[in-house]
Amino acid sequence: MATKKIISVDFEVYGRVQGVFFRKYTQGQAKKLGLRGWCMNTDEGTVTGVMEGDQKQIEEMKKWLQLTGSPQSKIEKAVFKNEKNVDVSGFKDFSIRH
């Protein structure tokens, strides 16, 4: 039986994404989709992180990060990079880092 490929993607979201519960909503959405990884605020006013999961869930999360976010956020753009296949997830869940 073939195992599902795990995709790992780095992301950074620009706009009004700090002080609007963006990380909390990101964590909730990631958990809902069964993704693992983390997110955190940066000194530049963005939210950055890593997400891991199967391709379908990653694509859904990408859309969410680009278009939805938290209710008070105003997303200018979301950048995704270093997309790669990994054999084993490096994370046990999706956390918020400080």
Verbal overview:
This protein is of the alpha+beta class and 98 residues long. The protein has two helices and five strands. It has helices at residues 22-32, 55-67; strands at 6-16, 36-41, 47-53, 74-86, 94-96. A five-stranded mixed β-sheet has the order 4-1-3-2-5, with helices on one face. The protein is globular and about 40 Å long. The termini are far apart. 27% of the residues are buried. The mean pLDDT is 96.
Q: Can you give keywords for this protein?
A:
98 residues, alpha+beta, 5 strands
Strand neighbour order, sheet with most strands: 4-1-3-2-5
Q: What is the succession of H and E elements?
A: EHEEHEE
Q: What is the residue-averaged pLDDT? A: 96
DSSP strand count: 5
Write down the overall geometry. Answer: globular
Q: List the total number of helices.
A: 2
Low-pLDDT parts are none
Note the gap between the termini.
39 Å
* Radius of gyration of CA atoms, rounded to a whole number: 13 Å
> What's the story with the biggest beta sheet?
5 strands, mixed
How would you summarize the topology of this molecule?
Blueprint: E1 6-16, H1 22-32, E2 36-41, E3 47-53, H2 55-67, E4 74-86, E5 94-96
Parallel strand pairs: 2-5
Antiparallel strand pairs: 1-3, 1-4, 2-3
Brief write-up:
This protein has a five-stranded mixed beta sheet, covered by helices on one side.
